[in-house]
Each structure stands twice: as C-alpha cells, then as structure tokens.
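Replying to the earlier thread about multi-chain prediction with a worked example.

Input:
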Amino acid sequence: MYRLCPFLYTFDYKVKHCPSGGWPVPCVYFLVWIGSDFLKPLFSLDCPLACLAEPIGSAAVSIRDGETEGVLHLGDRDAAVLVVPEKETLLKAGEQLLAWKRPSVPDLVTLNEANTPSGLVTAHRLFSAFVTLAQNQSALLHTLLDTMSEAITIVDMHNVVHYWNKAAENIYEIDRAQVVGTPLDAHFDSESIRLLDALKQGTSVQRVYHIPRPDRHVLINAAPIRQEGDIIGAISIEQDITELVRLNEELSHTTAHLHNLQQEMSRFQAADDPFFTIKGHSAAIQSAIQAARKVAQTDATVLIYGESGVGKELFAQAIHQASRRREKPFIAINCGAIPAALFESELFGYQGGAFTGAEKKGKPGKLELAHGGTLFLDEIGELPLELQVKLLRALQERQFYRVGGTEPITVNTRIVAATNRQLEHMVAEGRFREDLYYRLNVFTLEIPPLRERREDIPELVQLFLHEYAIANDQPVPRITPDVMQALIDHTWPGNIRQLRNVIERLSILQEGGVILPEHLPSAIRSLTLAAPPAVPLTPPYAPVSQTSPAGYPFAPDSALSERERILAALDRTYGNKKAAADLLGISRGTLYNKMRKYGISHER
Ligand SMILES: Nc1ncnc2c1ncn2[C@@H]1O[C@H](COP(=O)(O)OP(=O)(O)OP(=O)(O)O)[C@@H](O)[C@H]1O
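Result:
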C-alpha cells in the first residue's frame, strides 16, 4: 500500500540524549508519498500511532528534554513538529494536535521506547487517517445496523430520525427515505414513543413490552446517547414479538380447548382408573399409588399416614373404588370432628327410642351403613380412649350392638383409617390403645408431604388453575415464572389443600389473565423475597404449628398464640369451621381438636 516516491531527501538527525549532545549522521532517506487507500483497514481510534508512521531514518530531529515539541531539520529549512510516543493512540495524537495553538499544522514525530525518533506522521497523513476511520466506522455501523433483525431507530435531541435500519423498514413498513430527516412523531403517536422518555428524561429501558402501533408488539431497549454528559439523541432497539404474541394467544385458546377435552377424557378415565384423580408424577407419590393399587385388591385394613391435606381421603376413596367392594358404599367418618358423646351412636347407630331426641325407629351407624363396602376412619388418632375399646371390639368380632340395642349386628366392612399423628408415640404415651394400633396397622401407606415432592407442584398448580377457570367460565390465567418458583419454594404446611386455596385466591386476583408476584399471599411472597430454599422438616408429621412460615396472621409462627390464631380465623370466616381450617392450613378435625383443647366454643 505504500507507494514510495523516488524523490530523495538527505537528513541529519540528532537525538537529545546523544553523548555528544547531537552529531550529524548523513543518510539517504525516502520520503513516502501517502496513497489515499493506505489507511483502509482502520476501524478504531485506538489504533497506535506507530501504524501510521513512516520510517524517519536519519532525518535530524531536535527535541528538548521532556518536551512534546521538536524541530525537524529538512536540509535547508527547519519545521516545528509534535513529538508523540509511537504507542500512543490515534485519538490521543489527534487531541494533542487540537491543543496546538499556532496557525500552521505540524507534522508528528514518533518516539520509540528508547525515546529515539522512530517515525514521521505528516499532518496530512493523520487527517487522512481520521477521514478513512470515519468512513470505515460509518460503513461498519451501517452494515451492523442493517444486519440486525431488530428495528433500530436513532433520533437527535429534537426527535428527528437520523437512522432507520432495514429491519425497521420491514417491521413498520415505512421506507428509510420517508423517515430519515423527519420527526419520529410524524409517524407514531407521541405517547407510544418510548424513545421520547430516553430523550427527555435520560432514562433507559430494557426489554420492555411495548405496543407502538395496535398491530405491533415489541420488546424495546431504549437509551439516551450522551456526549460528555449531554444528551445528544437517543437510540431504540425493538424486537418484533407480534408473531410470538399471536402464537401465545393461539396456544392459550388451544390449551383451554385441550383442557376441556382432557376433562371430558378424564371423566372416562376416572371411571376406568380410580387413582386417576391423584395427580403427580414424582417418584414419592407414584410409589404410594403403586402400593395403594396393590392393597386395594385385598380386604386388608389400611392405615394411611400423612400430614394434613396430602390427599389421605383421596387415597382411601381410590382404594375403595379399585377394590371389589366398589359397588358398595364408601362411608367416611371424621373421628376428630364428632363430639365424643355422639361418636358411639354415629359409629354403631342406635335403637328406636334409645335416648332423648333419638329417632323413633332408630338409626343405623356408619359401620352398618358401610356393610359390604369401606369405612374410612379419618383422624383416627383423635378417637377418645373409651371409644377405641369399643371400636376394637367391633373390628375383632365383626359384630356390634346399636346403642340401646340388644340384637348383635354382623357386618363385613373394610376399614381404612388415616392419621396425621405418629400413633406409635401416642401408644408409648398411653394416648392410643396398643391393641387397636396393631389391629389397624396391617398395611401402612405413607403419603409424602408436598415439600418432599416439589416436582409435582407445577402440575397441581396447572390442574387447579384449569379447574377454577372452567368453574368460573374464564380463560386459564398465565402464571409468571417467579410466581411458580415461589409456589415451588414454599413449604406448604397445609399441603395440597392449602395449595388449592392459594390457587383459587390467585385465580380471583389475577389481572388481564396474568398472575403476578404481588397477587401471592404475603407469607409466600416474603419467603420468595428472602429466597430461602425450603428445607424438608423433621419429624415427618410435625404438627402444623412447627412447619408453617410466618407472614400472615394465620401462619403458625406468627406473633399470635395458636389459640389467638384460631380465634382470628374463626372470626374471619364467621365461625365457618371448614373455611377457618382451610385458612389455618389444617384439617377440620384438627381444628375441632384444637378448639376443644383451648376451650373454644363450637358455637362461635
Ligand atoms: N395428588 C393429588 N392430586 C390432586 N388433588 C389432590 C391430591 N392430593 C390431594 N388433593 C386435593 O387436596 C385436597 C385435600 O385432600 P384430602 O382431603 O384427601 O387430604 P387429607 O390428607 O385427607 O386431609 P386431612 O388430613 O385434612 O383430612 C382435596 O381437595 C383433594 O382433592
């Protein structure tokens, strides 16, 4: 690229640190004629000056110690020069040149690391370099901007468009020639121009969802362009997501339609497979289902262990439905919810006129009603000791008497019991009869709490969202990833029942079909902000009061005592036990027990 001119100059050069203070060394040197295309590769102002310098050879240069100026001795005349280290950048050299206050523009002499003059950069050459650089950068910028698939708009401080790339032409179907040089608000409503914020307030936005025109949906990045602190314009980069939004809408409709079909199908499948209603693909729940399927084929008594709301009753029903007793009744009785005085008549029934207020012709008990089928004894741990004896006798002898009756009644009833208490501990403490424990504990089934199978949470969340959407004839709301993460991280003391309640709440609070973090109950939200990964608790069936996170008045470790929390929940639900239990994340039976324990009247 260098075109050498055969024109010769003879120079001397002397160097400031020459031992003799400067001695002439005659030599022949080429003056280089600078071709217009020699600088083409320049792309950056950071290019070192050495890349422009021509060898100085033996030309004489006088430099005063520590100075940035020198004198170049050119045969019969001298010229003032700027002296710049050769590793200095083009930009720095340009700045030094600008600081030169005299009328003539000097050439530059470069110094190598040994402070010896090493090259010459003429002013003309430096200027050419800047022009080439500007042209190169402009070409680079145009190529870069036109290669991008995002729409790029650059406006000056008066909102006049200076750049409008090919993608912008395609997305907005406006030619560059129509836009460049005109104010942006001539083409868009001012309020839909995010660039104006960047321009007026100097604010930047990143990946903000924006609808600049009713038919266009974009994700926009916008920022002011500053030069030495002053805003000289603004740039926006917009990713067209119109198609994505359209597809998402289509997907939502299709998903809702699909879910309706699935619901239809599940009605048939549920008839085929009683365990179909038990959702979850985690290994933990699947192994419980597998065990339940097996025991369903037998008449063995089943004792189901699991925290409140894990689905014990769901399992009991599925076991019944999968057994050969499916055509006969499934009767459930909550041992914790029935006052002790009534329990006996509930379980065994009573003879006509047996006691005041009794029905004249008598009433069969649940054990009798479940003849040929299954009796589900929920919250068996809450059964008072004196009734445990009676139940045990009935189970052993398969015979019992109605209250006030004299005729023995023989039944063939399968027993499935459930508890969230550790019955062994209760046996050891004398609160549960050992013989009844062994009578019930033929086949135990453990239902894992939700926090030990977090992988099931997204499936359950979607299930409940769909259920509520269908029940309320609404589209299924979308749940943001951070909300889903919060739900996954939560410890769920009330397990699936509590999850279901929270999803119902979220379905009500959602806005525009989207569930956001602010819709979450504060207990779950605050846990998310602190982001502690939920830790499995021990022992596995710790009482609810040890497992729930703080943050709302009904949470077990809020500042209120358990009694106060129960009273608050009852007040809030106007005495509705079921709703209060849901609020507290415990079962109704447990609530009754606790009310009894704290002497809270049932009439509340
Ligand atoms: N695996 C599951 N898939 C879908 N829904 C479930 C599942 N497990 C439980 N549920 C739902 O959670 C709620 C509570 O279930 P269930 O009453 O069977 O729990 P539980 O353990 O018997 O509670 P408690 O100890 O309070 O009596 C119900 O609405 C039930 O349908």
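The chain has a mean pLDDT of 81.

Feel free to reuse this layout for your own posts.
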